[in-house]
Amino acid sequence: MGRPGGRGAAAATAREPSVREASGREGAVRERAVREAVRQGVVPEPIDADGVDGVGALAGLDVGGLRLLQAIAEHGTLTAAAAVLGTSQPAVSQHVRRLERRLGTALLDRSGRRVRLTEAGAVLAAHGQTVNAAVRAAAAQVTALTGLRAGVVRVVAFPSSSATLVPLALARLRREHPGLTVTLDEAEPPEALARLRAGTCDVAVTFAYGSAGSTATPGLAPRPDAAADAARDGELSGLVARHLLDDPTLAVLPADHPRADDPQLSLSDLAGETWIAGCPQCRGHLLHSAAACGFAPEIAYATDDYVAVLSLVAAGLGVALLPRLVRQTGERHPGVVLRSAAGTSARRVYAMTTPDLIRVPAVAATLDALAAAAPATTAAVSG
Length: 383
Prior knowledge:
The protein is an alpha/beta fold.
């Protein structure tokens, strides 16, 4: 028999170099994997679990870790890096050791008076410099947006508002916030609301007709039953409406019409006329108002172009109802007169957006500008 522990101890001693060699090889493999993954920009979200090795260990990286290594590389000591980052030297040291455990490789060589980054640490520090620059750029851009020095707002508006109210609002925005960019597109209320919900616009300028004492629903024509009202309210759930102005309805007559000079014109006075209908919402208003006055209008023509409506009336082809926002255009159009008509109702004009977008400073400023432009618009079209 040999001495106690003789061959066993020798065998254990013989195995130890191979374990160390394997550990060294694994460490080198891990470090090469880290370098290659970082070179390719593979830096997943951080996780809390320790002991992760291989490329998966990159899940232990975070922005703070990269910035920390960059600060160590730049300032040479943990104490100096901690001072720059506004933390303590023990916290910095603990953070680095936690990163090393997660990555499975050394990031610092602590053998000298000053710490030195290993090759893996240097690779990550270089990316930390890029991260620092990106964070500063992002902060500058967000500051510009919140400070209304930059930003894009997409507005969709119905035609008569884009010819009157909206230009005044956009001019005000340009004076007060020249860094903002506002785009404008035209659409009738149903399409504008659909685009707002789809995220292809930020602000929808829309309108709703309603009878006296009723609550108008923005962007939708009035309907006679409560079930339809509830359906409309459901379609608009989740949107924010800001009332801008009330826009009365005017009757448009040929200049030679027998009632052209009548100061007390009523919708019922035009019951026997041929009618020219406007957009779907305006057509709905005509039908409901006429029904309330006891007649069904004979509609021979329909167009959502109010200039075309004016031309058809001027040609003697019928009469029409148009909103007061088109009054200035109508009064410049030869061959027509515009008169107030009892039995019609005003439409309520709104700026619509979403609860999230209303918190965006540029969108809120756009709604403010529209609201500020409303009194001047009303004064200009009142005559």
